């Protein structure tokens, strides 16, 4: 039994063992146990304030672990971002007054690995340009980051996270504030990276995009409510419990839609009752 547990530990890329995390005056989650396996592509969903960003930042050594332990690739996190992790922060939390160009932001993804002064070699510059081109923002390399749109900034941060070839990519709301086309492009790119072997954990508020693009979801609200294939996990019951608000899931063939409008459940119920009534009256007539 103990052997089986330690084998599972060895196989997992990220492992939370009874972790309690929080800030000075607030515990955000307690006794959390969670594993991410190599090549997993998982979406962390839950309401505002659920602790999603806190969870991501705890893997990076940014939020302090009050008790328990987190390990990445078998090494315990101790206040320092592990080398094998790339991170894309929640874009609204970034201070845009800092005067840096797109290329400089992406280059920051390389500095952590070296102790030398932050000048780029020709090869590094070539790699950065290639990555920016791949993300369709190559022509912005010399522009100040604050002069880009939200979706473009999002891609610059994605490039910064990817430039060091991470094994694990952590993204905090990578699709927020971007149009539908960019959203699909980002999720498509992440899918490709995942197929190449990168393990991905992201947060989002777009449940329908998660259901369409991701093989695994974790419903989180200070604790894990449920996790698994979105087809199985996204039920009205699980989502209503996660969001502490009534939500409906409508399925038609292979397509699934989450209705998260206020009182979604009521609309759905009403609709069903009306349909039922018509059917019932049909029965009565006969
Ligand atoms: N630096 C901080 N200091 C103190 N409290 C914080 C800090 N960061 C977050 N919190 C609190 O911790 C809780 C969890 O916040 P967190 O940012 O992890 O939520 P979230 O699930 O990412 O929400 P959102 O979907 O809005 O991004 C919230 O109650 C928040 O107010
Ligand atoms: Mg957040």
Largest sheet: 6 strands, mixed
Spans of at least 5 consecutive residues with low confidence: 265-286
Instruction: Report the helical percentage.
Output: 25-40%
The shape is: globular
Order of helices and strands: HEEEHEEEHHHEHEHEEHHEEH
In the sheet with the most strands, the strands line up as 6-7-8-3-9-10
How many alpha or pi helices?
Answer: 10
Derived from helix and strand composition plus strand pairing, the structural class reads alpha/beta
What average pLDDT do the residues reach? 84
What share of residues are in beta strands? 15-25%
CA-atom Rg in angstroms: 22 Å
Number of strands: 12
Chemical compounds bound to the protein: adenosine-5'-triphosphate, magnesium ion
How far apart lie the N and C ends? 63 Å
């Amino acid at each position: 039994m103990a052997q089986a547990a330690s084998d599972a530990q060895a196989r997992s890329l990220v492992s939370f063992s009874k972790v309690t995390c929080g800030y000075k005056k607030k515990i955000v989650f307690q006794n959390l146990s969670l594993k991410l396996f190599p090549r997993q592509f998982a979406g962390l969903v839950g309401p505002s304030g659920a602790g999603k960003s806190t969870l991501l930042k705890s893997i990076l050594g940014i939020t302090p672990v009050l008790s328990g332990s987190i390990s990445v690739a078998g090494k315990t996190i101790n206040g320092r971002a592990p080398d094998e992790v790339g991170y894309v922060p929640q874009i609204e939390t970034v201070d845009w007054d800092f005067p840096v160009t797109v290329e400089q932001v992406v280059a920051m993804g390389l500095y952590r690995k070296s102790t030398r002064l932050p000048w780029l070699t020709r090869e590094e510059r070539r790699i950065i340009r290639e990555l920016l081109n791949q993300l369709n923002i190559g022509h912005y390399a010399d522009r100040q980051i604050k002069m880009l749109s939200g979706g473009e900034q999002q891609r610059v941060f994605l490039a910064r996270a990817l430039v060091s070839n991470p094994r694990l990519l952590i993204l905090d709301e990578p699709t927020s504030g971007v149009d539908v086309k960019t959203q699909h492009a980002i999720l498509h790119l992440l899918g490709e990276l995942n197929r190449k072997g990168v393990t991905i954990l992201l947060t989002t508020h777009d449940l329908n995009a998660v259901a369409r693009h991701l093989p695994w979801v974790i419903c989180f609200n200070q604790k894990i409510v449920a996790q698994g294939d979105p087809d199985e996990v996204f039920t009205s019951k699980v989502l209503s419990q996660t969001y502490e608000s009534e939500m409906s899931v409508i399925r038609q063939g292979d397509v699934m839609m989450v209705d998260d409008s206020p009182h979604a459940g009521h609309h759905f119920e009403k609709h069903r009752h009306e349909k039922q009534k018509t059917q019932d009256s049909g029965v009565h007539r006969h």
